[in-house]
Amino acid sequence: MAVPFRSPVGLVSGPRGVRAVPVDGSGTPKEVVRPPESLVGVFPPVYPEWLGDRDFLVRHGCRFPYVVGEMARGIASAEMVVASARAGFMAFFGSAGLTISSVDEGITAIQSELGPTIRNWGANLIHSPQEPHMEMEFAELMLARGVTNISASAFMRLAPAVVYLSAKGLHRDANGAIRRRTHIFGKVSRVEVARPFMSPAPDSLLMPLVSQGLISDQEAALARQVPVAGDITVEADSGGHTDNRPLSVLLPLILSLAAECAREHGFASPARVGAGGGLGTPAALAAAFAAGAAYVVTGSVNQATLESALSPDGRAMLALASSTDVAMAPAADMFEMGVEVQVLKRGTLFAQRGKELYKVFRTYPSIEAIPDRVRSALENNVLGRPIDDIWDDTREFFLRRDPPQLERAEADPKHRMALVFRWYLFMGAQWARSGEVTRRADYQIWCGPAMGAFNEWVKGSFLEPVENRSVVQVGLNLLEGAAHVTRVQQLRLAGVPRRPEDLEFSPRPLR
Ligand SMILES: Cc1cc2nc3c(=O)[nH]c(=O)nc-3n(C[C@H](O)[C@H](O)[C@H](O)COP(=O)(O)O)c2cc1C
Predict the structure, then answer these.
(1) Are 315 and 303 spatial neighbours (Cβ–Cβ below 8 Å)?
(2) What atom in ligand 1 is closest to the CA of residue 72?
(3) Pocket test for ligand 1, best of 66, 238, 242 (most atoms within 8 A of CB)
(4) pLDDT tens digits, 309-330
(5) Residue 131: is its pLDDT beyond 90?
(6) Arithmetic mean of pLDDT over the chain
(7) CA of 238 to the centre of ligand 1 (A)
(8) 84 CB near ligand 1 (under 6 Å)
(9) What does pTM read for this prediction?
(10) Greatest Cα-to-Cα distance within the chain, rounded to the nearest angstrom
């Protein structure tokens, strides 16, 4: 029989083993079962809505335990957030890398579409070591605009802006329970980073906020009784910034840490732990839920959807990727520290060229020290422009955006070289966004192996053509498929033999 998951399934045991039979709503088999066979059990329906923590759904007003992850520079666009929230997903606007006024524009667009009552969406507070003032400005904007979900990412330790957002507005409801105004989703890929997010905010961060008049004594007192983040997103090997860690290693570690922190601090319930990174097929989602994820997060697969702000050219390239068509490349924001991001390899030379720049950066103390031969090779084969022209543009940009960078560059020639090389890394992402096809070989498209896994799964289905990929159909099909895989696994555990084709779930238009 086909494997139904939205209706109950009966288990019939007999001399030849266990088999599954369709049953009606009262659990009565729809086909005749004669001795020596007998009905030994009935499995209730498996709904995609129920795969994760029900508490997550209630707390955030979601229908599904499914999060559309933030994608920087508005790639997770206002349109993507609106469509996802309406479908019952949680979704985060890609606010990283945007100016505060562009973030405000995006938030306003979302709020004018969704209105004040729909709350299953938020924005991304990204750690900004290059522009530390941005974190507090972002926090102020979120509070002013009433955004109630914040995904805090790339932090290696807690920062004032995270604690401010977490503590501001904490209060007790009529039953005495502590309620949050802002829900922090702490995105982590290391145990040592997860722990402070799962613990109460320390006084070293709370007290300065109190003395600056940003939070009250009462808010600080309540902040000492709850974890900074009620939700922790475990991010395994993913598109963009990643430690390339396997989800199967990281998720169990952080789940047990959540339980440990709850015990240690006497929380009524542990932080909810969600899973992201590498989720591009129903089986991957089902595995994450089976391992205990409260919710799942996708990123790469959404970048190829209609609502993504990536250019159609870039999206078409993503739709051709296989799971091995990815590579690590230097990150624009933390280039000097040697931090890398995972990007698409097929159809672009960005990863190779970025690495070449990093090699030159490590080798020479300044632009002037680069030998002529190396410099002209860089200008002709990588940058596509004379370094002097790039510096002129770079200077103009930082004059507007961040003048102290220029003072540093004047004093430190290596920093000037970094700013020039970062121009290329920054523009690689811009060209991919705007579809500058003459620079296709320089497109920087953040992408993890999940993209290729997704492409393989949807082959031959309505989701294969990139023009049919909406963020909602992608999410609904992944969830529906995960429910199917979960049912197959349930039956296997009960002794029903599994045929290879039982696991197949082909995408279909869903509502
Ligand atoms: C194009 C792109 C941009 C991203 N930008 C951000 C970002 O600005 N902030 C962040 O926390 N995560 C960012 N991510 C990570 C996603 O939110 C999500 O956690 C991740 O993509 C999930 O892993 P996956 O790519 O394997 O699906 C980005 C991912 C992609 C693919």
Answers:
(1) yes
(2) 8
(3) 238
(4) 999 999 999 999 999 999 999 9
(5) no
(6) 96
(7) 7
(8) no
(9) 0.96
(10) 89
Nearest-CA residue for ligand 1 atom 14 is 71
Residue 405's closest CA among 126, 98, 135, 130? 130
Q: How many CA atoms lie within 13 A of 386 on its CB side?
A: 3
Pocket probe for ligand 1: among 81, 300, 340, the residue whose CB has the most ligand atoms within 8 Å is 300
Residue 97 falls in which region: left (phi positive, over 0), alpha (psi -120 to 50) or beta: left
User: What structural domains does the chain harbor?
Assistant: 1-45 (no CATH), 49-310 (3.20.20.70), 313-442 (no CATH)
Residue 48: CB within 6 Å of ligand 1? no
- Find out whether the beta carbon of 475 lies less than 6 Å from any atom of ligand 1: no
pLDDT in tens, 215-264: 999 999 999 999 999 999 999 999 999 999 999 999 999 999 999 999 99
**Cα–Cα distance between 389 and 439 in angstroms, integer?**
17
Residue 378 has pLDDT above 90, yes or no: yes
Q: Cα of 140 to ligand 1 centre, how many Å?
A: 24
* Kind of pairing between the strands at 231-235 and 272-276: parallel
Query: pLDDT, tens digit, for every residue of 132-167?
Result: 789 999 999 999 999 999 999 999 999 999 999 999
pLDDT at res. 1: 66
| Ligand 1 contact via 150 beta carbon (within 6 Å) | no
185 vs 166: CA distance, rounded Å: 10
**188: Cβ–Cβ under 8 A, 6 or more apart, which residues?**
194, 197, 232, 233, 234, 235, 254
